Amino acid sequence: MMTFDVLTLFPGMFSSPLQESILGRASQQQLLQVRLHNLRDWAEGKHQTTDDTPYGGGDGMVMKPEPIARAIAELKARAPRSKVLLMTPQGIPFSHQKACNLAQEEGLIFLCGRYEGFDERVRQALVDEEYSIGDYVLTGGELPAMVMIDAISRFIPGVLGCSDSVEADSFSDGLLEYPQYTRPAVFEGMAVPEVLLSGDHGKIARWRREQQLLRTCQKRPDLLETAELDNEDKKILEQLQSKALESDK
Ligand code: 4GX
Predict the structure, then answer these.
(1) Which one of 44, 169, 200, 232 is the catalytic residue?
(2) DSSP at 194
(3) Which of 17, 35, 74, 89 is catalytic?
(4) 138 lines ligand 1 (CB under 6 A)
(5) Catalytic site residue 154?
(6) Is 84 exposed, middle or buried (0-12, 13-18, 19+ CB in 10 A)?
(7) Any residues with CB less than 8 A from the CB of 127 and at least 6 apart, and which?
(8) Is 80 in the active site?
(9) Counting atoms of ligand 1 from 1, which one is nearest the CA of 135?
């Protein structure tokens, strides 16, 4: 079973997102466990202080190193092979591939920062890897930790039903997904593409692949550089590109 330890000042933020739906079911089936820890439990003094003003002056507060060091020592004693991860805009961009690799670990410890972040020595001494979930600034590391736990959990065997398998989704071959339709056949004047009603499975598979390539080409051309394309795909792409040039004339 995969263990996610989360060290945070706001453990309450995690309870409902991780207990609903697929992750809730996976916890119940003991495919994974999320253990929430309040950093304040390792703080000292009457006020159990976890932050302090920055050396050198300036706005904001910095999280003190000692409570974090004590907490991580205790979590590591219980899970010696767990990697310690920190979420920050300075981190390595988190991706489908990183999620897949991290799912191979026995356990992960997510250290969630608040305020201006941690004393730099926390990074130096206690953190194994730093990740960013995107180029924007959040109020803390809790949401990034939840995003990562969600994306990593999908790669744990048994977490997804076979109907929504990891292989079938976007990014496993590096392309965006094809459009999906369900009943009714006509909705507000918009009909479902004829081919999907044809019952010709070969034709449907080719149409879907073409749609994947078309969408990726239009919306995320950067993905085509690393996508896994066979000769058939390359032929379809050339046709799409010559069609596009045709309509430009
Ligand atoms: N992708 N943030 C963390 C506080 C902080 C600062 C420095 C540790 C070191 C973010 C992101 C993100 C904002 C999370 C600052 N903690 N994390 N927080 N984007 O914006 O991962």
Answers:
(1) 169
(2) G
(3) 89
(4) yes
(5) yes
(6) buried
(7) 84, 85, 86, 111
(8) no
(9) 19
Q: Is the CB of 133 under 6 A from ligand 1?
A: yes
The residue count of the chain comes to: 249
pLDDT in tens, 89-128: 999 999 999 999 999 999 999 999 998 889 999 999 999 9
pLDDT digit string (tens) for 130-173? 999 999 999 999 999 999 999 999 999 999 987 667 776 778 88
Q: Which two tokens stand for residue 61?
A: 């507060």
Q: Cα(175) to centroid of ligand 1, in Å?
A: 29
Closest ligand 1 atom to the C-alpha of 137?
20
Distances (CA, A) of 98 to 58, 95, 102, 120: 35, 5, 6, 24
Phi and psi (nearest 5°) for 26? Answer: -65, -35
- For residue 88, the CA-to-ligand 1 centroid distance in Å is 3
CB-CB contact of 32 with 3 (8 Å): yes
| The model's pTM | 0.94
Identity at 215, one-letter amino acid code = R
215 Cα–ligand 1 center, Å: 32
20-34: pLDDT as tens digits = 999 999 999 999 999
* DSSP code per residue over 129-190: EEEESSSS--S-SHHHHHHHHHHHHTTSTTSS-GGG-TTTSTTSSSSPPPP---S-SEETTE
113 CA closest ligand 1 atom index = 16
Does the Cβ of 147 fall within 6 Å of ligand 1? no
